Here is the input.
Amino acid sequence: MSTDNQVAVDIETANKNLAETIRNRIQALPSSKFCIFRVPEKFRIDKEDVYSPKILAIGPYHCNNPNLKSMEEHKKWYLHAFLARSSKQLDDVVKDLRDLEQDARDCYADPISDISSDDFVTLMLFDGCFILELLCRYFDEVEDKSKDMNDRIFTSTWMIPSLRRDLVMLENQIPFIVLEALFKFINNSAAKRVYNINKIIISFFNAIIPTIEQAQAKEDTKGKHLLDFLRTHLLPSSQQVEFGSYVNWEYTKCVTDISEAGVKFKRRAHGDGLLDVKFENGVLEIPPFCFGESVTVLLPNLIALEQCEGYSDQITSYVILLDSLINSPNDVKLLRNRDIIDSLFHEDEKVAIAINNLCKGVVVNEFYYDLLCHRVNAYCRTDWHKWRATLKRDYFNTPWAILSFIAAIILLVLAFIQALFSVIAYYAPKNNN
Here is the structure.
């Protein structure tokens, strides 16, 4: 073989090797089914603890974290307990999960191709059974207070809140189709007790849902995973939203400013969920909400979820509205005095700071309260509303001020009558002459 031929063969071999290397590095576009994402890095700045689980790893993103290994033994115990609830054998459960494997993998936006088929199915089995057993046990405890839960999770006061917190992390999810596939094994005609999956989820997460009243499970609520389920639960039942048709979105001024301009605030007792904020006749009606982990953990993860592909900005828009209304402890105090914010220990400054930190780095495609803000701002710009608010604030702010004003009016009227009679008396004799 000539030197030229040898060089040509070497180049062709090198090209094939390079092409194979590149082929191994590229991949097709992600599936349109993906719904479980990594939190964007711009949101994690100074807020790592809001997005990273503390004691429990669920799914592939945190499964190798050595700091979360303490719950792995508990997953084994709960799998044993789960199988005891079921009339099926472990082989049947594994078979069903194996059939769902590709659909479940497609739910993860970040590549998890390095996890083998057996490892992935095992991960879904242990994590899914742990979640369902935990929810069922919690539901049993709530329904039957006398039931003895000889379980470290339930005898430790800090465990349930910590697990609840970790289970709403965006990166700590497994597909809902896995939970549904496992749930049917413990919810059949042969089961000792029949559960409703929506009810046991809402029962467990009620303490972290930011509504003041006990949340009621909606039978028609569906979810792609637990966090998505909670988001769907919080959305209004009616999806009809009246957007403003304005070139630039409008936001409101803070509560204190628009209150001085004449806007009144009222607790919305019978609205269509947490997001159902209304403005009519100068009254801004806001559904009441609790300040707690619902604000500091659940809402940031819901916002992070909506910042990912395929989601509308409804929760994010609600938080942007709160952020525009609340700038200081005085704003929080006014809303708390109207029974709109329920804040433990009256930590008004802490509430204001927490809400103001929720929207950093957020971008929305649609602001769902644009029309409402436009109407509020138009109301505030009307001079009559400002004058009436000033009159009420400066002259009718106490019962004594009102009485003083009425007394002044009476004195003014009496003085006018006296002056009138004096004029009449002055001219009356002249007319008689």
